[in-house]
């Protein structure tokens, strides 16, 4: 098996980059460019269901902070503007933002947008589940538990989840493109200190 190429990471450290991504449409566009490769605003509009002009505006915002860049034309029309992602993964450390109110606010807005995109994606899955093959619905996972942990134990849980993710990324990378048995699967997890208010 060929080893998986390490992810190209976009490390977000400033408020401007976080604010640029703190919009559900931009998060979705970045995800689509990472998943599908180079696209035009018109191609993305077929998936996102927004006008190409609106998407061009959002693509420009992503390009301004270096998360996407113009790509070589993929078709015969040289007037079309193609875009590609500059990284495979977005990383930032929310704890590093806490001492700067502007960065902390941008980080919180970014995380709220992530939550909205994941909730919308799960909603689309629920809408489609009745028409999916039974084995795919049976293999899906959803659950939550409340754990009593120290801060060190929570950090260890995070590290274990990241290790588990890396293992399954290797499995994912080993699949041949076009394999009819393979589908895109969303893997999302959360572990955080529960808020004190009910």
Provide the descriptors you would attach to this structure in a database record.
198 residues; mainly alpha; Arc Repressor Mutant, subunit A; 3-stranded antiparallel sheet; 7 helices; 50% helix; 8% strand
Report the end-to-end length measured between terminal Cα atoms: 49 Å
Please report which band the strand proportion falls in: under 5%, 5-15%, 15-25%, 25-35%, 35-45% or over 45%: 5-15%
> Would you tell me which CATH topology of the domain at 9-140 applies?
Arc Repressor Mutant, subunit A
Q: What is the tally of beta strands?
A: 5
How does the major sheet shape up? Answer: 3 strands, antiparallel
The named CATH superfamily of the domain at 9-140: Winged helix-like DNA-binding domain superfamily/Winged helix DNA-binding domain
Describe the structure concisely for a colleague.
The chain is mostly helical and 198 residues long. It has helices at 15-21, 24-36, 41-48, 52-64, 101-128, 134-139, 151-174, and strands at residues 9-11, 39-40, 68-71, 82-85, 89-91.
